[in-house]
Every structure is written in structure tokens, then in C-alpha cells.
Specification:
Elements: E1 5-8, H1 19-27, H2 39-52, E2 56-60, H3 63-74, E3 80-85, H4 89-92, H5 97-100, E4 105-109, H6 119-125, E5 135-142, H7 155-165, E6 178-183, H8 186-193, H9 197-200, E7 206-210, E8 221-225, H10 227-239, H11 248-261, H12 265-277, E9 293-297, H13 305-312, E10 332-335, E11 343-347, H14 354-374
């Protein structure tokens, strides 16, 4: 049988290192990073700190470790609590590491559709004096917000949040509440807003930034903040098993990403919008597509998102003859992510071409058309 044309839109984590990354990874001069002697790691950490307007950075193997380290450094006393969105990655998809590894309770605030949460509610939920209660030491904002559909959190919200937590009497005595940004996709936010990541993260004490999603590097994140914060994070990184040796082989791909891939992120956003626009019968609010994530809402109670995602991955016998094929006449497989959500998620990245976007549109039209015939809409 002929092999199918596969368009993998499960996540931007499936992005592949570019040819330039491969070349540089093969030839980079390395040293032992635990001794601080790997030139590429040092360069990446310094460059990321500069780009974000922070004093220092530390390279970590994953965004999950970056968020955990920030939690450990900011929530450094027993009985502390961090306030996070109820749809945030740190709450949903990091195994509750804040509790079972860092000894920190996560308390959730309801995420709105735009990735924000109520600041009135936040103010009410800050706890700092009563001996019955934990102490609020950190607030986390995810930007862009994955589960809200890759939403760019508005700058006005970030500014208001920072002025709220900096108000006198908010926090405990001299210890103010830390602001951490889970900036796994913050370069996407920057591309969408047309403003620098330094402005977006201006008032945040720390930011965890992923290199292996839309930035297309194979592995890693960088955690940035003050010199003091990063020194403590670096120390704790060793305890979490994140002290790596000749890791410039990975870090150099991050340097290439900053030069080669970051400037092109807006193209991923354009292509994502094209898929949203290309299907009049998908329930998508095109204005809500800010970046490289598209949520296809499943409005029919008879259809599960996981079933829809499975169907996109199947080439039925009559599909090719119905025109659902690539230029060589092969069937089209679209890989999507569904979990147990009320929507299927499609995510674009550097390697998704214009041609693949067209194939995805053809496949989606066909499959949704089938469902519409089976269950005509009111």
C-alpha cells in the first residue's frame, strides 16, 4: 500500500531540529557545565537573560523542571502556597510536582477564556498573616496560555497584576509575593503582540522559556531572573538531576533558534489562522486564534474529541477517490491532540509547510463534512 502523507499537529513539541542546528550541534566546542565551563551554555544563558531584561539564566532539561525550580526558590519557607490558574500547565500537567517534590500547595484561580484570572479574586485569596493559613509566596501566569487556545495574555492584565502584588501590605512583611511566568511559548506572545519579551516579562521575577516547542530545538528550557534567584535555582537543579555535563551540544541549538526560528514565528501564526479560516464548518472563533494553537470545538454531544482525533488519523478506502489526497495521490493523515477535552487541539511549528496546511484543510473539510451528513446541524 502507498504510504500516506502525514501532517503531525499534535503539538509543537514534535518540531525537529533544523539543518543548521544539526551542523552546530555536531561541531560545537563543549565543556563541563557543572563546572560552568561549557561555552555554548554560558552564551545561551547570558543571551536569554539579556533578551528578557533579566540578570541571569540557567539552562534546564525541561519546562517542567524550570517551573518546579522557580517554585522551590520563590516558595522557600515551609507552609507556603502559590496561586495559579485552574487551566494552567503547572497545575494540570506537571504531576503536582509543586506539592510532592517542593512541598508547596498550589491554589487555583479560575482561568477566563483569555488566559487571565480575576484580580479581585486573587487579592481576596492572598494569605499571609493568620497562623491557621499557608503563606502566599508566588503567583504564576502562563503566557501564551495553552489550554485556553494559545492565548496571548494581555499586557494590561500583566501590568495590573504586578502593581497589585507590589502594593504595600500585600505579601508578608518585607517579603513580597514573587511573580513567575510560565513562558513556555512566550516568544509566540511576543510575535503576536509585536513587542519584545523583555516588555512582556518586565515585572516578573522569573520566566521559564521553552526552546523545544515552536523554537524547534530538540531539548531544553532556560529559566531567567535575578543573579541571586538563578544561583539558587542552579544549586537546586543539581538535586533534581538537572546538572548536565557537555550540554552545549543541546544549548547551541537554542542559540540557533534565537537567530533562525524566532524571527519566523509569525508565519506559524498565519498558517494556523489559515486552517481556522479554511473550514467554514468548524466551530472556531477566528479572532480567538492568537498564535500557533487552534482549538476545534466539538459541539455535538454524540461525538467525543478523542474519536474525532482518531478519525483524522485514518484514511478510509473511498477518501482518495473523493479528492482527499496529496499531489502524489497519497491519502492524508492528520495527527491531532484530544485527551478528554471538549475540543481537539492542532498546533503548528517551524516544519509545518504551506503545502501541509492545505492538506490539513482538505482532510478537516472531508471529515467534518462526514459528521455533518451523519448528524445534520439544526
Amino acid at each position: 500500500t502507498m504510504s500516506h502523507s502525514i501532517v503531525d499537529l499534535r503539538s509543537d513539541t514534535v518540531s525537529q531540529p533544523t539543518a543548521e542546528m544539526r551542523t552546530r550541534m555536531a561541531n560545537v566546542v563543549v565543556g563541563d557545565d557543572v563546572y560552568g565551563e561549557d561555552p555554548a551554555v554560558n552564551e545561551l544563558e547570558a543571551r536569554m537573560a539579556t533578551i528578557f531584561g533579566k540578570e541571569a539564566g540557567v539552562f534546564v532539561p525541561s519546562g517542567t523542571m524550570g517551573n518546579l525550580l522557580a517554585t522551590m526558590v520563590h516558595c522557600n519557607r515551609r507552609g507556603s502556597e502559590a496561586l495559579v490558574g485552574d487551566l494552567s500547565h503547572v497545575f494540570l500537567y506537571e504531576q503536582g510536582g509543586a506539592s510532592h517534590l517542593a512541598g508547596v500547595q498550589l491554589a487555583t484561580l479560575k482561568n477566563e477564556q483569555d488566559g487571565t484570572f480575576s484580580l479581585v479574586e486573587l487579592r481576596r485569596r492572598i494569605r499571609h498573616e493568620d497562623c491557621h493559613e499557608p503563606i502566599t509566596q508566588m503567583v504564576v501566569v502562563e503566557n501564551t496560555h495553552n489550554i485556553c487556545g494559545g492565548k496571548v495574555v494581555p499586557l494590561a492584565f500583566l501590568d495590573e497584576l504586578s502593581s497589585l502584588v507590589r502594593q504595600p501590605g500585600v505579601g508578608t512583611g518585607s517579603a513580597r509575593i514573587a511573580l513567575h511566568m510560565d513562558g513556555a511559548r512566550v516568544f509566540n506572545a511576543s510575535a503576536a503582540l509585536g513587542v519584545g519579551v523583555d516588555r512582556i516579562c518586565r515585572d516578573f521575577d522569573s520566566v521559564s522559556v521553552c526552546l523545544s516547542k515552536g523554537l524547534s530545538a530538540p531539548v531544553g528550557s532556560v529559566l531567567v531572573g535575578s543573579k541571586e534567584f538563578v544561583a539558587e535555582a542552579r544549586r537546586l537543579r543539581k538535586a533534581l538531576g538537572g546538572g548536565m555535563r557537555q550540554v552545549g551540544i543541546l544549548a547551541v541549538a537554542g542559540l540557533v533558534a534565537l537567530d533562525e526560528v524566532v524571527p519566523l514565528l509569525a508565519k506559524d501564526h498565519e498558517r494556523t489562522k489559515r486552517i481556522a479560516n479554511g473550514n467554514p464548518n468548524i466551530t472556531v472563533d477566528v479572532d480567538s486564534v492568537h498564535t500557533n494553537i487552534l482549538l476545534v470545538e466539538i459541539t455535538n454531544p454524540k461525538l467525543e474529541a478523542s474519536e474525532f482525533a482518531t478519525r483524522l488519523g485514518i484514511v478510509e478506502p473511498d477518501e482518495v477517490s473523493a479528492g482527499v489526497k496529496d499531489k502524489n495521490g497519497a491519502g492524508i493523515v492528520v495527527k491531532a491532540c484530544a485527551r478528554d477535552w471538549a475540543f481537539a487541539r492542532l498546533v503548528l511549528y517551524h516544519q509545518v509547510t504551506d503545502e501541509q496546511v492545505e492538506l490539513a484543510i482538505i482532510k478537516l473539510k472531508h471529515v467534518i463534512g462526514q459528521y455533518d451528513r451523519r448528524w445534520p446541524r439544526a
